[in-house]
Design brief:
With about 270 residues, the protein is an alpha+beta fold. It contains eight helices and eight strands, in the order αααααααββββββαββ.
């Protein structure tokens, strides 16, 4: 049942603003609601509803620190229709108000980046939409596997994939970047031709992921082991460029010439 529980966790991640109940998800998975709740708690240490709220608050924390969005807009984008409910939930989780979290988080980011100097500034470009076959992992960013091994994370799925070149670019998406993430999770896999994606036979342990076109801050990453300080440096540099990290998954693309860091950006002029 592990694959189904992972599917449930991904569904919670992808539906933060949904009011759909776990009963609907359990029916989709073919299990009873009590089975899903029991197994979910067994694997993740909390109920599905508590996990969803933790994801919402995790997203809110990123938006508060890295964007100029107003607190009401942060609440809305994190799946809260009621500002007061958001503030109460945030206080329970972080033991401080959203405003205080923003101040403390920005100071911590500035301190982390104070001793760093990027050799080059990130460049801004429009990254086209793409498709990838990925496996979900639950590990922190300080345990990144070697980029040369990313292809092997597909649990033995035969490579090359139909519709992908023999040396297809590998991809990693980090949903909660940073060593202190409470719910670390990432997807690792390979890029595939979007036109052939629908015809691929994907085993239950993997899934097809479609990434929309995104405006990103990009930087070559000579040594992925140095991701954390490089990421802190880029995040601290973006406001100086009048740019802000959107809070969406951080992308790492492993091609023939190395690894590129892609940091999705907040829509230009969005300071709601």
């Amino acid at each position: 049942m592990f694959n189904e529980i992972v599917r449930a966790e991904i569904w919670l991640q992808d539906t933060l603003d949904s009011q759909e109940s776990m009963a609907a998800l359990a029916e989709r998975l073919g299990y009873s609601t009590s089975q899903v709740r029991r197994r979910f708690r067994q694997y993740f240490g909390m109920s599905p509803s508590a996990y969803r709220e933790a994801l919402r608050l995790e997203k809110a924390g990123r938006l508060l620190v890295h964007t100029p969005l107003g607190i009401r807009e942060v609440a809305r984008r994190s799946g809260y229709a009621n500002h007061s409910a958001f503030s109460r939930a945030f206080l329970r989780r972080f033991r401080c108000s959203p405003r205080e979290h923003r101040q403390v988080g920005r100071r911590a980011l500035a301190e982390a980046a104070s001793g760093l100097s990027l050799d080059v500034s990130p460049w801004i470009r429009q990254v086209p939409s793409c498709a990838a076959v990925v496996a979900r992992q639950y590990e922190a960013t300080d345990t990144l596997p070697s980029p040369d091994s990313w292809h092997r994370c597909l649990n033995g799925y035969q490579l090359p994939l139909p519709g992908a070149p023999e040396r297809a670019a590998a991809i990693m998406l980090m949903y909660s970047p940073g060593p202190d993430a409470a719910l670390p999770r990432r997807d690792i896999g390979v890029l595939v031709d979007g036109r052939a994606a629908d015809s691929l036979a994907i085993p239950p342990s993997l899934r097809m992921l479609r990434l929309p076109e995104a405006r990103c801050a990009c930087l070559d990453l000579p040594d992925p082991a140095g991701l954390e300080p490089t990421l802190a440096g880029v995040l601290a540099t973006l406001p100086e460029m009048s740019e802000h990290y959107s809070g969406d998954p951080v992308r790492l693309i492993k091609g023939t010439s190395g690894v590129e860091l892609q940091l999705p950006l907040l829509e230009t002029g969005c300071h709601c």
